[in-house]
Amino acid sequence: MSGKPSRSLGGKMIRFAVVGLANTAIDLAAFTILLWLAMPSLAANVGAWLVAVAFSFVANRFWSFERDRSIPLSHSVFRFISLGALVSLGVSSAFIVGFAGWIGIWPAKIAGIIVAAALNFLAARWSIEGRLLR
Q: Going by C-beta distance under 8 Å and a sequence separation of 6 or more, which residues neighbour residue 100?
């Protein structure tokens, strides 16, 4: 860790939430554009996720969390993307596949984003700071 004063867990959560709101807007905008371009919904979800996860990593790494300098950038990116794929992409895709026919594509997409948000906080914190709960 750097010599800077440590941000509180609450401060990190607030910053993560702000990044998350921006990230959600980016995800939904990209998803909308890809659907408008006639991409199938699951493929559009993956494409939108790729755009959003790039923004999310940069914003969370430089603003939300305090980077553990002992974790190489390549490891941090790998952790962030692999956990993001398992959590956010997996949950949102599962919601689209499982619920879009029942509640509609947009409610399924938004529900998946909401469910994944708390899990993503832990995943992002571990991938950038090297810790989960402490």
A: 41, 108, 109
A 10 A CB-CB count for 6 gives 11
What residue spans define the domains of the chain?
9-129
Distances (CA, A) of 97 to 9, 89, 113: 34, 12, 14
Distant-in-sequence, close-in-space partners of 64: CB < 8 Å, separation ≥ 6: 12, 15, 16, 19, 124, 128
Kindly report, residue by residue over 22-39, the tens digit of the pLDDT.
998 999 999 999 999 999
Reported for 21-30, long-range contacts at CB under 8 A and 24+ positions apart, including other chains, are 22/55, 22/59, 23/52, 23/55, 23/56, 23/59, 24/52, 24/113, 26/51, 26/52, 26/55, 27/51, 27/52, 27/113, 28/109
